[in-house]
C-alpha cells in the first residue's frame, strides 16, 4: 500500500480524504493557497506545501506546482477530490509521466467521459438511453438559437467541461438562449479553462438520479445503488438522499446495469457516477458521467457501509475489488444537506466572512439514527470569496426515510453558525415541507414551492406553542441566574418571581404560568401545559432539552427582552414580558425600515465584472444593470422597476462589500 499520498484539493473533501488515509495508516500531504494558510485540511495533514496565491487558477489548478509538491514530499500518489483538477485528463497524464499514481480513473476514461459531448456519444454507442440534443460544439449565439429552435423549448445550455452547476443555463426562448449561451461560455472559461458548450432538450418535471459505480484495473465494475439529487437551485444540488423514493428494484437494476455497461465501455477503473434525468414514470436518460468522487458520496457510504475513498486508494494501488455485485446490500436510508455560506432570503446569494460561531451537532448515534458531518472549516475560520461556498455536509442515516428526515431536522436545529449568512433555515424548512416528506420530487422543487423566493417561515400551531414555552423557560433560567448574583442589596422583603409570562412570537401572543419542580419547568398555557427539561445555560447558541419528554433542539440568540428562536424550520423573535411590561411594550412605536428603492445595492461580497448602463440612461424593469462575480458564479443584477440612472458609484474591477451602493436612481 502507498506510504504517503497528496491531496490536490482543499476544504471539506481534503479533510474527508485525510480521515480515511489516516485510518489506513497512510501519511498525507496537504497543499494550500495564500487564502488557506490556516485552513483545517492544512492542520489535519502530516505535511503541507504552499502552492500559490488565493485564486484557484494560481494555485489549486497549477499542475506543475502539484507535481513539485509531490516530489518535494515524496508523495507516491495524488487524490484529486472533486472540482479543480479532478477531471482533467492532462493532470492524470502529467502525474503518470512523473511516476506518480493518480487516485482516480485512467486518462482515457477521463477523456471519454469528462467531455460532456464525447460522453454522450460513448453512451449512445454503449446502448445507454440518452437525451435528445446537439452534440457538436456551438460557436455562436445565433447557432445556439438555431439548434434550440430545432430541438424545441425548453433547452439546457451546458459547458462541455462543466460540473457543479457552473456553465449551465435553462432557456425557454430564443432570447434566453442568446444570453444563456454568453453566460455559460464565460463561466465555463473562468471555472474550467474550456468555453465549449452544447445544447440538449430539457426534460420537463424531471428528477435527477445518479448511479455510483466502482471499477478496478482488472476489468471488474459494480454499482452501489442510486442517489436522488433532485432538490437543486441554479443547477446545483442542495439535498441528496439514498436510495431514491422513486425507484423500484427493477428500475434500479436497469439503471445500474446501463451505468456498468458504460463504465466497462471506457475501461473505467475507480469510483465514478453516471447521472440520469428520470421522468416521473421511471423513464430515464443519460446525462453525463462524473469521473471523480461526488460531493454527495456520503449517503451511498452510509447505506452500503463501503468507504469509497478507501476503495479508490486500493484500486489505484492495483488491488482487485474485494466486493462483488452480490455483496452490495442497501441498508436503511440516508439524507444529506449541503450547508452553504449563502443567504436564502436574498435569492441564495453568496456570503463571506468569519465564522464567529461554528458548532455542528454531535456526530454518532442519535436514537435509531446516525449523524455524520463532513466539513473543512472551524470556529474562527474565514469563508473566502475565492472558492465554493460549502461549509459542511450534514448526513443522517436511519432504518427508514421518515426516520432519516426526522433525524436530519433535529440535527439542523442543533447546528449553530454565526458571523455569515447560511442556508440552514432553508434546508430546515424543506425538512418540514409536505412535498419533500412525501417524496414527490423534481428538479423544479425549489422554483415551484418557493416562487417568490425564500423568507423565514413563521411558527404556527404546535411549533409556535413549543417555541413560546422554550422562550419562557429561557427567560426563567435568566431570572434565576440574576437572583443568585452575589452581593445584591437586601430589601425589606424577598424578591419573588412574576409567575405570569406573556410571549410575543411571530405576531401571536401566548400567556403562560410558570412553575418549577425537581429541575423541570412547567408552562401552563390556556390550551394545555408543557413540561420543559434542559441544562441550557445563558449564552449557549443551541437549546437542547425535552418538551413533554420529546428530545428537541432550538437555535437561541439573545435579543432585547427575549430571545430569537429557530426550530423545526420556523424562525421568530420571542419577546418575553411580565403583564405590566406587555402593556407598556404595546405602546412603543415600530421603527420603519429604510427606503432602498432608489439605489442598487451589492447583494453579496464580490467583484464588479461589468457595469451595463450609463448615467442618464432610462432602464426598463428587468433590464440588466450590472454583473457581480462571487465564488466563481456570475450574478446579473436587474432593475426591479423602470428607472433612470442618476449616479454610478462603483467601477469595474471594484471589490464590494454586501449592501455597498453600486448606483443611484433618479
What is shown here, in short?
Keywords: ATP-binding, Biotin, Ligase, Lipid degradation, Lipid metabolism, Magnesium, Manganese, Metal-binding, Nucleotide-binding. This protein has 666 residues and is an alpha+beta fold.
Structure description:
The chain has 666 residues and is α+β, with helices and mostly antiparallel strands. Helices cover 27% and strands 33% of the residues. It has 17 helices and 40 strands. A nine-stranded antiparallel β-sheet has the order 14-13-10-11-12-15-23-21-20. Strands 25-26-27-28-29-30-31-32 form an eight-stranded antiparallel β-barrel, surrounded by four helices. Strands 3-2-1-4-5 form a five-stranded parallel β-sheet, sandwiched between helices. Strand 30 (550-559) and strand 31 (562-567) form a beta hairpin. The N and C termini lie far apart (69 Å).
Amino acid at each position: 500500500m502507498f506510504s504517503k499520498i497528496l491531496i490536490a484539493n482543499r476544504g471539506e473533501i481534503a479533510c474527508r480524504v485525510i480521515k480515511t488515509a489516516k485510518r489506513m495508516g497512510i501519511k498525507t500531504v496537504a497543499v494550500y493557497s495564500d487564502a488557506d494558510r490556516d485552513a483545517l485540511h492544512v492542520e489535519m495533514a502530516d505535511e503541507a506545501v504552499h502552492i500559490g496565491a488565493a485564486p484557484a487558477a494560481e494555485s489549486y489548478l497549477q499542475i506543475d506546482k502539484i507535481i513539485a509538491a509531490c516530489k518535494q514530499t515524496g508523495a507516491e500518489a495524488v487524490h484529486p477530490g472533486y472540482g479543480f483538477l479532478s477531471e482533467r485528463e492532462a493532470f492524470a497524464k502529467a502525474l503518470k509521466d512523473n511516476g506518480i499514481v493518480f487516485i482516480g480513473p485512467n486518462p482515457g476514461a477521463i477523456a471519454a467521459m469528462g467531455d460532456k459531448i464525447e460522453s454522450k456519444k460513448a453512451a449512445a454507442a454503449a446502448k445507454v438511453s440518452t437525451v435528445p440534443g446537439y452534440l457538436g460544439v456551438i460557436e455562436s449565439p445565433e447557432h445556439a438559437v438555431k439548434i434550440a429552435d430545432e430541438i424545441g423549448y425548453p433547452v439546457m445550455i451546458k459547458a462541455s467541461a462543466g460540473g457543479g452547476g457552473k456553465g449551465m443555463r435553462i432557456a425557454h426562448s430564443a432570447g434566453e438562449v442568446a444570453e444563456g449561451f454568453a453566460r455559460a461560455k464565460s463561466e465555463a472559461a473562468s471555472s474550467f479553462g474550456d468555453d465549449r458548450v452544447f445544447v440538449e432538450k430539457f426534460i420537463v418535471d424531471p428528477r435527477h438520479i445518479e448511479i455510483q459505480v466502482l471499477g478496478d484495473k482488472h476489468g471488474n465494475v459494480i454499482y452501489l445503488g442510486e442517489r436522488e439529487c433532485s432538490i437543486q437551485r441554479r443547477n446545483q444540488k442542495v439535498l441528496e438522499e439514498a436510495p431514491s423514493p422513486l425507484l423500484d428494484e427493477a428500475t434500479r437494476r436497469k439503471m445500474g446495469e446501463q451505468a456498468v455497461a458504460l463504465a466497462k465501455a471506457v475501461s473505467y477503473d475507480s469510483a465514478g457516477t453516471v447521472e440520469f434525468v428520470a421522468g416521473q414514470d421511471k423513464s430515464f436518460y443519460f446525462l453525463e458521467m462524473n469521473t471523480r468522487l461526488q460531493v454527495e458520496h456520503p449517503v451511498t457510504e452510509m447505506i452500503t457501509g463501503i468507504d469509497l475513498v478507501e476503495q479508490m486508494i486500493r484500486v489505484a494501488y492495483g488491488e482487485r475489488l474485494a466486493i462483488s455485485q452480490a455483496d452490495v446490500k442497501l441498508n436503511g436510508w440516508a439524507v444529506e444537506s449541503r450547508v452553504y455560506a449563502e443567504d436564502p432570503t436574498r435569492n441564495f446569494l453568496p456570503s463571506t466572512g468569519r465564522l464567529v460561531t461554528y458548532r455542528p451537532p454531535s456526530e454518532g448515534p442519535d436514537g435509531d439514527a446516525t449523524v455524520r458531518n463532513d466539513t473543512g472549516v472551524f470556529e474562527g475560520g474565514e469563508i473566502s470569496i475565492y472558492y465554493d461556498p460549502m461549509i459542511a455536509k450534514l448526513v443522517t442515516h436511519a432504518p427508514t426515510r421518515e426516520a432519516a428526515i426526522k433525524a436530519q431536522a433535529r440535527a439542523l436545529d442543533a447546528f449553530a453558525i454565526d458571523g455569515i449568512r447560511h442556508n440552514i433555515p432553508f434546508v430546515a424548512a424543506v425538512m418540514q415541507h409536505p412535498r419533500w416528506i412525501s417524496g414527490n420530487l423534481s428538479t423544479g422543487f425549489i422554483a415551484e414551492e418557493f416562487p417568490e423566493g425564500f423568507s423565514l417561515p413563521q411558527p404556527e400551531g404546535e411549533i409556535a406553542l413549543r417555541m413560546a414555552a422554550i422562550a419562557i423557560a429561557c427567560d426563567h433560567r435568566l431570572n434565576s441566574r440574576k437572583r443568585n448574583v452575589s452581593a445584591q442589596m437586601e430589601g425589606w422583603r424577598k424578591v419573588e418571581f412574576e409567575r405570569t409570562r406573556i410571549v410575543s412570537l411571530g405576531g401571536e401572543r401566548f400567556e403562560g404560568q410558570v412553575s418549577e419542580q425537581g429541575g423541570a419547568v412547567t408552562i401552563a398555557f390556556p390550551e394545555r401545559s408543557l413540561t420543559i427539561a434542559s441544562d441550557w445555560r445563558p449564552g449557549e447558541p443551541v437549546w437542547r432539552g425535552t418538551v413533554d419528554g420529546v428530545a428537541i433542539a432550538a437555535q437561541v440568540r439573545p435579543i432585547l427582552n427575549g430571545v430569537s428562536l429557530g426550530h423545526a424550520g420556523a424562525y421568530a423573535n420571542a419577546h418575553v414580558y411580565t403583564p405590566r411590561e406587555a402593556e407598556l411594550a404595546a405602546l412603543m412605536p415600530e421603527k420603519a425600515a429604510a427606503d432602498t428603492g432608489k439605489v442598487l445595492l451589492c447583494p453579496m461580497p464580490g467583484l464588479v465584472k461589468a457595469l451595463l448602463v450609463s448615467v442618464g440612461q432610462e432602464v426598463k424593469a428587468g433590464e440588466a444593470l450590472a454583473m457581480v462575480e462571487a465564488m466563481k458564479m456570475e450574478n446579473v443584477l436587474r432593475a426591479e422597476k423602470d428607472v433612470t440612472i442618476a449616479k454610478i458609484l462603483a467601477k469595474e474591477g471594484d471589490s464590494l462589500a454586501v449592501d455597498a451602493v453600486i448606483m443611484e436612481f433618479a
